[in-house]
Amino acid sequence: MVRALEIYLTNPGAYRSGWPDLTVIRGDQLWLYEVKTTDRLNENQLRFLLDIAKPLGLGMTVLRLQPIPTDRQPSRRRWWPF
Predict the structure, then answer these.
(1) Taking a C-beta distance cutoff of 8 angstroms, is the pair 18, 50 a contact?
(2) Quick one: pLDDT band at residue 20, thresholds 50, 70, 90?
(3) Any idea what the Cα angle at residue 22 is, between residues 20 and 27, rounded to 5°?
(4) Burial of 41 from C-beta contacts in 10 A (0-12 / 13-18 / 19+)
(5) Position 22 pLDDT exceeds 90
(6) What percent of the chain shows pLDDT beyond 70?
(7) Residue 33, H or E segment
C-alpha cells in the first residue's frame, strides 16, 4: 500500500479521480473495488489499474450494481438505526 501511495503522489492530479471507490485493508491484506452502475471505467481509472495496481500485483475488482426489480413504490417511512 505504501508503494501505491508513493506512485500516486508522483501525479495526484492524474490519479485522484482514478483511485477505486473502496479500499479495504484488513491485517496485511488489501482489496480495491470499483463500483459501477451503468458507466464504464474512465481514463483515470484505467491509468490507476495499469500504472499502480497491475505493476504492484494489487487485486482490483469491478463490481457492477444492478437494480432489483420491484412492483411496489418505495416506502415513505424512513428507518434510522438509532
Answers:
(1) no
(2) very high
(3) 120
(4) middle
(5) yes
(6) 85
(7) strand 29-36
34-50 mean pLDDT: 90
Whether the CB-CB separation of 60 and 30 falls below 8 Å is answered with: no
Asked if residue 82 has pLDDT above 50, the reply is no
Q: In the chain, count H helices and then E strands.
A: 4, 3
CA–CA separation, 27 and 17 (whole Å): 26
Contact 49, 58 (CB under 8 A): no
pTM: 0.69
- Exposure letters 49-67 (e unless 16+ CB within 10 A, then b): bebbbeeeebebeeeeeee
3-state secondary structure 40-51: CCCHHHHHHHHH
Cell of 6: 508513493
